[in-house]
Amino acid sequence: MPPLLSLDHVFKSFGDPADPLHALKDISFQMRRGEFLCVVGPSGSGKSTLLRLIAGLLQPTSGVIALDGDPISGPSPRVGIVFQTSNLMPWRTVLDNIALPLELRGESKARRHQIAREYIALVALDGFEGHYPHQLSGGMQQRAAIARTLVQNPELLLLDEPFGALDALTREYLDQELLRIWRLKEMTVIMVTHAINEAVWLADRVLALSQRPGVLKADIPITLPRPRTEAMLTHPDYLTLVKTVRNHIDRPVIQKPTP
Amino acid sequence: MPTSTSPRPPATRFTFSHNPRSLRLIRILLGVVSVLLFIFLWDALVRWQDYPAFILPPPKAVWGKLLITLADGTLWRHASITLAEILGGLLLGVTVATLLGYLLAKSPLLDQLLSPYIVALQAFPVVALAPLLVIWIQQPLARTILIAALVLFFPVLVNTIVGLRSVEPELVAVMRSLQATRWQIFIKLEIPFALPVFLGALKIGATLAVIGAVIGEFVGSNRGLGFLINLAQGLLDTPLLFVALFTLALIALGLYGLISLLEYRLLAWKRAA
Ligand SMILES: Nc1ncnc2c1ncn2[C@@H]1O[C@H](COP(=O)(O)OP(=O)(O)O)[C@@H](O)[C@H]1O
Ligand SMILES: [Mg+2]
Questions:
Q1: d(CA A74, CA A61)
Q2: 3-state DSSP call for residue A67?
Q3: How far is B166 from chain A (nearest CA, A)?
Q4: What pLDDT was estimated at residue B272?
């Protein structure tokens, strides 16, 4: 079976071509359908850039990104992305925010509200349909943002540090919810996170990016059985894997003051 | 004085109820009381100082003049012209300012080309151009509309640019990832995002349109409330002058109130708690 997603020598640089800022350098990897991949790396290593490239929001400077063998040329309903901040529209209710992708597609109001309600139930926001984003907690806002992305039924879901701004307990709960939805919808997921233990607990594979320019430093299979449980968090295999991933991540360089 | 013999809750002493409808009623009542008080004080001042009517007419004289000018159609004839000029100026000025503001917010090239002029003209008292426009444009209605539009143009332009520039790029990324067209991004993101700033600009614009219309009539017109004010001054008909002034104030307030109402309705989501 051909891979769902393949990146082939992808480079991305920003700014003046004469003096470019290299964000990503020679990234190649493949993903099979149904896989759950986590990307870790220090800040500035190009994780967000990588997701934006796959989402078709940016074009690679060179190299090819292909979905099912077809090069990605722009945003497509087959790929959905969730950003670090929920980016809900403050003037829309939860229901109308989640129905937005259907509205853009020209669905009737009755139909899009019906579908949106299904996804509101999926992310357990029942009862908050008529609320505005500012009336929700951070975790609920992110759930609404995920529902908005899922409503167009993407095959590939990209998540850019979706729970990075939330407290640890909320994040653990939402990680579990995410795995539940992933199994239910049989999606393929790439999630960026800066929490190594979260990545190991969630993923089938963890990719580690180096400090800028981001190159692929490691591709670590996570052999833990599924379903993942809380009990695994203290299992020696889990701890070993966390350590392995950690060893591949560059430590932030702290400039020593010159005397 | 005995301290608190009756268990009357102090919080309800001045407000009858916290329900918003009776609160609104109280506010309206207070408004009426304040207007009545103003008229009473005005009348008292005239009686006490014994001013001649051409300096400060008593409220009764102004009221009488109002009834006369209403009955013979004078007031409506002039007020309707001024209203048309204000609305015309508002429509013209806001439309052009919004369109140009959109182009400037979107095109860095155009922005760099035009922004020196915009900055310079912003500080320029546009009303000083009015006499020039009297020479250039013969038709008083068209000329006054243009003056009103010019007076409100720059503040509205600058506000539109500020509003559109503040659209969060992350929200644009969301729209793009959902395959939104350029038009959908405009209608469903940029307009609602810029709406609060735009409505603020519209309020400023309405106030300035009134000023612009009066100036336009001052510098050369034979109709409108500005003309009526000039005429009344020449005739030393101060009651007529007051009638024109109050009508002008009423138009300005009404317009401002309408836009505030629109704002209240359109930005209802902000009040959800
Ligand atoms: N649109 C852009 N224009 C210029 N530089 C950018 C842009 N987006 C990202 N960069 C730069 O690319 C590098 C990688 O950024 P990013 O992908 O956001 O990293 P991460 O998500 O891993 O923190 C950073 O140095 C950042 O400043
Ligand atoms: Mg990032």
A1: 14
A2: strand
A3: 14
A4: 84
Q: Which of A85, A43, A6 is nearest to A195 (CA)?
A: A43
- Ligand 1 pocket residue status of A43, Cβ below 6 Å: yes
Q: Which residues of chain A have pLDDT under 70?
A: 252-259
Asked if residue A198 lies in contact with residue A217, where contact means CB atoms within 8 angstroms, the answer is no
Measured between alpha carbons, how far is residue B248 from residues B207, B254, B259 in Å?
11, 10, 17
Q: Do A104 and B178 touch (CB under 8 A)?
A: yes
Per residue, what are the HEC states of chain B?
CCCCCCCCCHHHCCCCCCCHHHHHHHHHHHHHHHHHHHHHHHHHHHHHHCCCCCCCCCHHHHHHHHHHHHHCCHHHHHHHHHHHHHHHHHHHHHHHHHHHHHHHHHCHHHHHHHHHHHHHHHHCCHHHHHHHHHHHCCCHHHHHHHHHHHHHHHHHHHHHHHHHHCCCHHHHHHHHHCCCCHHHHHHHHHHHHHHHHHHHHHHHHHHHHHHHHHHHHHHCCCCCHHHHHHHHHHHCCHHHHHHHHHHHHHHHHHHHHHHHHHHHHHCHHHHCC
Residue B162's pLDDT is what?
A: 87
pLDDT, one tens digit per residue, over B116-141 is 888 888 788 888 888 999 999 999 99
Q: Which atom of ligand 1 is nearest to the CA of A50?
A: 17
Hey, what domains does chain A have and what are their CATH numbers? Answer: 5-78+154-247 (3.40.50.300)
Residues of B with CB under 8 A from a CB of A: 168, 170-171, 173-180, 184, 188-189, 192, 195, 267, 269, 272-273
* Location of structure tokens 């510098």: B219
Q: Give the 3-state secondary structure of residue A61.
A: coil
Cβ contact B188–A103 (<8 Å)? yes
Burial class (CB in 10 A: 0-12, 13-18, 19+), B228: buried
Instruction: Give the sheet arrangement for strand A205-209, strand by strand.
Output: A79-82, A156-160, A188-192, A36-40, A205-209, A216-221
Its ipTM equals 0.90
Q: How far apart are CA A169 and CA A157, in angstroms?
A: 23
Contacts by B126-129, CB closer than 8 A, 24 or more apart = B126/B150, B126/B151, B126/B153, B126/B154, B127/B151, B127/B211, B127/B212, B127/B215
Q: pLDDT-based confidence at B171, cuts 50/70/90?
A: very high
Prior bond of A259 cis (ω within 30°): no
Q: Where are the beta strands (DSSP E) in chain A?
A: 5-14, 21-31, 36-40, 62-67, 70-71, 79-82, 156-160, 188-192, 205-209, 216-221
With beta carbons less than 8 A apart as the criterion, state whether A75 and B177 touch: yes
What would the DSSP string read from start to end of A164-232?
TTS-HHHHHHHHHHHHHHHHHHT-EEEEE-S-HHHHHHH-SEEEEEPSSSB-EEEEEE----SS--GGG
